[in-house]
Fold:
Amino acid sequence: MSTCLITDITHPVQEVPFTIPELLTLHDALLQTPFVSPRSQLQVHLCKLAILHSHISEFTINLNSGHTSPTTITNILNSINTTTHHLSQWPNSLPKDWIYNTMVVPSDWNQWTPIAHTYSSFWAANDWARYRTLQICTCHLRLRFYHLLTTTNQANTACISLDSLAGDISTTHVKIRNLANDICAPMLYHLGYKCMGSAERLYPIEAYPQGKYARLMSASQVTWPLYVAGIVEGVDAAQRVWIASQLDVIGGDAGVQQASAMAEVVRELALRK
Structure:
């Protein structure tokens, strides 16, 4: 479902393979189920984003046929803001051992950010990656709707200032870049590092998971977060190239062939920007 939430210039819009009533039923069922882990809460947020995605797609269809209203626009904007707020509260619900730590990265370790994230467990690291991916998806849906409003002159219909929209778009781009940085920061943890000029891949003492199988699983789990960060609007070309290099590592060293294909898509986008 999450793969349907990101659309970039190389792909047509993908529809969620569920109707809005089906998604609402699923959402209500998820809320009635006791949360057994932080990940189960993320499933609710994923469902909310799928519903929002469907509403925006429905709005696009109605827009093409001339059937839109200021109320619909306001409702979608309110849903975006509400979803953003609820998702931002997820870290507050985490147990203490789920919070990540940071470490300063030597300049020759070829990492994107000077500060790396490390985690207490394999599961915590993967859930943080999922969380940041959902945040990027939320930002993407916001931008998608804003662009619809500006290109079709619907902002005036809903009495929304174009200057205000432009400011929100700029702010959303900044948030996306920060989230992309946060997705890149744990790659030392997930994939290890190579010193500049060396072909040997190393893992710092602070890094987990330990062992070949655990590292393979960890690399597989961050493939989609990296890809999403690499294709979303707002990330600059240099970061896309670095993300593509990490996907190459997953595809080459870990043997996840899908990651190699993703790396090519991200690298192609970097060349276009």
Summary: The mean pLDDT is 84. The radius of gyration is 20 Å. Residues 55 and 75 are 10 Å apart (CA to CA).
